[in-house]
Amino acid sequence: MAKNDLKTKVNDASVEKFLNAVKDEQARNDCYEILKIMKQVTKEEPKMWGSSIVGFGSYHYISKSGREGDWMLTGFSPRKQNLTLYLMGGFDVEKDLLKKLGKFTTSVGCLYIKKLEDVDKKVLKDLVTASVKRMKKLSK
Known about the structure:
Elements: E1 10-11, H1 15-20, H2 25-42, E2 46-49, E3 53-56, E4 59-62, E5 68-71, E6 74-78, E7 83-87, H3 95-101, E8 105-106, E9 110-113, H4 121-138
Antiparallel strand pairs: 1-2, 2-3, 3-6, 4-5, 6-7, 7-9, 8-9
Helix pairs in contact: 2-4, 3-4
């Protein structure tokens, strides 16, 4: 089986230093709230993944093609356009929660929000919880 040569790997960079460097005050405050939510859900300490993703926990995967590697259970990144939350396992099973969330967009495993006040934080926490539980179950 081939090891995946992902460039985005967990490292020892300072999460606090990274978040404090977020220029936009609203985005920085939102990041600290998301950090708190993800820490509560995962019961893990945040770690930097690459240079711009704050991740929590990890799991080992083997893809259908035989590639394998380690990835975070959940995480987020303050991007220029929006806050990107990494919720693994897709959103098909969480349609009911998504209807209650507020203003957002998605891609395969990413949830994009402009600012935290655009979404219901309790629903967001429920989405993170569902994603983490699903990934823990799948990675056993």
